[in-house]
Amino acid sequence: MQVIQYIEQHTKLESQRIEKALQLFSEDATIPFIARYRKEFTQQLDEVDLEQIRKAQEDYLTLEKRRESILNRLEADGVLTTDLKKQIKEAQDLTRLEDLYLPYKKKRKTKADEAKALGLEPLAKQIMVQKRTDLRDLSKSYCSSQVKTSQDALTGAGFIIAEWIAERIDLRNYLRFQLQEFSFLKARVISSKKEEENAQKYKDYFDWEERLKNLPSHRFLAISRAEQAGVIRIKLVIDEQHLLAKFESKLIKTQGETASFLKDVIKDAYKRLMYPSLSKEIFQEAKQRADATAISVFAKNLKQLLLGAPLGQKRVLALDPGFRTGCKLVCIDEQGDLMHNETIFPHPPQKQHKESIKKISTLCEAYKIEAIAIGDGTASRETEALVKRIQFKHPIEVFVVSEAGASIYSASSIAREEFPNYDITVRGAISIGRRLQDPLAELVKIDPKSIGVGQYQHDVNQIELQRSLDRVVEHCVNTVGVNLNSASKSLLQHVSGIGEKLAENIVTFRHEHGAFGKRVDLKKVPRLGAKVYQQAAGFLRVKQSENPLDDSAVHPEQYELVKKIAQEEGVEVVDLIGNDALLNSIDLERYCTTKFGLPTLEDIREEMKKPGRDIREKAKAFSFNQNIKTIADLEVGMRLPGIVNNITNFGCFVSIGIKESGLIHVSNLADEFVSDVNEYVHLHEQILVKVLEIDLPRKRIQLKKIKLNEK
Questions:
Q1: What's the burial of 490, exposed, middle or buried (CB within 10 Å: 0-12/13-18/19+)?
Q2: Helix (H, G, I), strand (E, B) or coil at 632
Q3: Max CA pair span of the chain
Q4: Alpha carbons 27 and 8: distance in angstroms, whole number
Q5: Helix (H) or strand (E) segment spanning residue 235
Q6: What's the pLDDT tens digit per position in 155-201?
Q7: Alpha-carbon distance 188 to 321, whole Å?
Q8: Do the bridges between strand 397-401 and strand 371-375 make them parallel or antiparallel, or are there none, so unpaired?
Q9: CA–CA separation, 621 vs 690, rounded Å?
Q10: pLDDT in tens, 101-155
């Protein structure tokens, strides 16, 4: 099977479009670039389609590499027959390949190997022919100094037959199917662990049984975590009687002593050889599915977080709250640069309320502060209440900002490079303020796994998780676009085609030569050639350039096309920008070519209407219920404002201003059936909730999403 056929089979996309995508991949084109600027060439493949093609291509290469390895090994061992070679060449997945290779695979010496060495293979073959019923008499001729009795001979022959049975592909596939479709995952607590404090978090799974096929991702991963923690034992349970009867009907063609002997051998083959390996295989498949679902949820959450509403370029006073150690306070300018920092102590034990209020008020006036950002960690509620008591001389909005990952950033090499003369407390406060200004620009500096928007992120495949999260970051950065003259190295390295080293070169060049005057100046950056410029330019913005298109998503290779449209409309390019009436009146079909078709022309028109526009919403201020300080203050039936801070397949978690987040189960999100939580809430959405249940000992809160007028 050729690569295009394989990809077509696994993606259901047309071969012609796949071929075009592979051609662009071979030319080192990135997915964001292809999806945005090569729509005509690929017949409008989007980023999801392109990622599927790339993944299928990688799977194909893995399959072919393994196929070649197996063929070479079998040929070297002198066991590669024409028929076997044909079967291996035709195998379309790794499972089939490994099953074909299994009988020839070098493994530790088995009981069957030992029996063969004793000369018992001919006896095993005679038994399998099933023409003799007098097994005792038949086996006597195989007795020797090493095989003392006929029973020893039959036992050895049974080991050989069991191995043959275990290697039969039809039987292995039947067992796979039964395990996939009908097995139950059974969990039981280890009695000696039952009363341990650490075990209590897993008490729901002390005695649990559920069909594997129906087991949700989050529950599978929770059970797996409990098993890894040594609290429970798990196994796949299946109807063994039905399974063995099926095997017997396929293998036994006689009655009497031989049939009874083969029944025992079949049972041994199943229990000793087939079930252990195939149940492990099916469990791993289930783990991969659970991982994929959990990673998908994490990726969706991360995307929403990165595309969170920015405040924009405004001066911010940021507070990292604390009690004993005080509140670290910083003032940052429109570009996020530090103007001032100090520590105030408004809370116990110092209780310097008046001094702190005066200090905040004075700094807001002195540095022309337009917004205040308060971290949502320890003492956040108390700090917010303090700030809201201040009578400012001009309007200042107050925002509570997630601190997740801020401590990771403040101790990172990136933070040390940005602020070498300040300690981690100052860096953490700066990060909080910058998150309010632009979540995307700040959060790209932090390992996504540290941001806290996933479930079981440490339990899933870390390579696949990292790959997925990297794709999300790349998508978000290139969707929003990047200001070439203000972007950090951390942000630039995620721009299509650039990478870490070129991002560093761009920042160094900018530092040495000043701001970029126009996009084309990028070509002056060391090691940034024409190919990288092609891939990156459309996603970079240059403000106040002599060419207004430099501050838009219009690609430089499209500039001449826009210039031609403007000339034929009798205006300058600058006159097209923002002129909706004129842009809507243009007959785009007049300008279609093989390279730039209607999809690209429509993209250009939309971009010209609002060049460089930010697709994200604007940040909105929010306040929790000031009367709720701890979980003990809650009562069933309370209606409270909240912010969605995590989304899972079984619901979402909501911050209501206390240490514990509440859970809105999927059944309490809406009156109708909810198949996708993301269709009903999004990360950091401000919603109204009703308290349904409070479990004080376990510190769990059950909530329901309600409408403003709902009782």
A1: buried
A2: helix
A3: 108
A4: 21
A5: strand 232-237
A6: 999 999 999 999 999 999 999 999 999 999 999 999 998 888 888 88
A7: 44
A8: parallel
A9: 21
A10: 999 988 889 999 999 999 999 999 999 999 888 898 999 999 999 999 999 999 9
